[in-house]
């Protein structure tokens, strides 16, 4: 299966990067990787991803700061937050900052995350 969607994974855990990259590539997505928020912002300008899968606990620029930057620069790219943080205030903050969905890592397997990605891309 081939599609032309580019997914930017912003994650600093190499195991998760490998796992999600493999699953997304099998589904036909082109995967772009960034291990911190600053690098992700540079990549966005250059590669223009169709969707961002974002961790919150990142070096240099955390996920909240990253979402604030995206919003302030009017970068209209759908973001799905994939984090271990599960406090209601963290979830609400991300959604208020423009995230399309918030997934708690421990509650979702990669195939479920891919279903969420497809839904967001269909509706964007």
Gist of the model:
The chain is α/β, with parallel strands linked by helices. The chain contains five helices and five strands. Strand 4, helix 4 and strand 5 form a beta-alpha-beta unit.
Word description of this protein:
By secondary structure, the protein is an alpha/beta fold. The protein has one domain: 3-Layer(aba) Sandwich (Rossmann fold), CATH 3.40.50. It is 46% helix and 19% strand. The protein is built from 5 helices and 5 strands; from the N terminus they run βαβαβαβαβα. Strand 1 (6-10), helix 1 and strand 2 (30-34) form a beta-alpha-beta unit. The longest helix is centred in the C-terminal third of the chain and has 14 residues, at 110-123. The mean pLDDT is 95.
Helices and strands, in order, run as EHEHEHEHEH
Q: Which topology does CATH recognise?
A: Rossmann fold
Q: Would you identify the regions where 5 or more consecutive residues have pLDDT less than 50?
A: none
Q: What is the CATH class designation?
A: Alpha Beta
Tally of alpha and pi helices: 5
Radius of gyration from CA coordinates:
13 Å
Total individual domains: 1
Largest sheet: 5 strands, parallel
What is the mean pLDDT?
Answer: 95
CATH architecture label name: 3-Layer(aba) Sandwich
Secondary structure: helix percent = 40-55%
Q: For the terminal residues, how far apart are their CA atoms?
A: 21 Å
What percentage of the residues does DSSP assign to strands (E)?
15-25%
- Global shape: globular
Strand arrangement, major sheet:
2-1-3-4-5
Structural class per helix/strand content? alpha/beta
């Amino acid at each position: 299966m081939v599609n032309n969607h580019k997914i930017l994974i912003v994650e600093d855990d190499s195991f998760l990067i490998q796992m999600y990259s493999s699953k997304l590539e099998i589904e036909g997505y082109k995967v772009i990787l960034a291990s911190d928020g600053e690098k992700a912002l540079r990549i966005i300008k250059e590669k223009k991803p169709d969707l961002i899968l974002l961790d919150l606990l990142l070096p240099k620029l955390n996920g909240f700061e990253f979402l604030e930057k995206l919003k302030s620069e009017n970068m209209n790219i759908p973001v799905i937050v994939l984090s271990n943080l599960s406090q209601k205030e963290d979830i609400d903050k991300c959604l208020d900052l423009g995230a399309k969905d918030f997934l708690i890592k421990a509650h979702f397997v990669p195939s479920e995350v891919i279903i969420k990605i497809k839904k967001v891309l269909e509706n964007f």
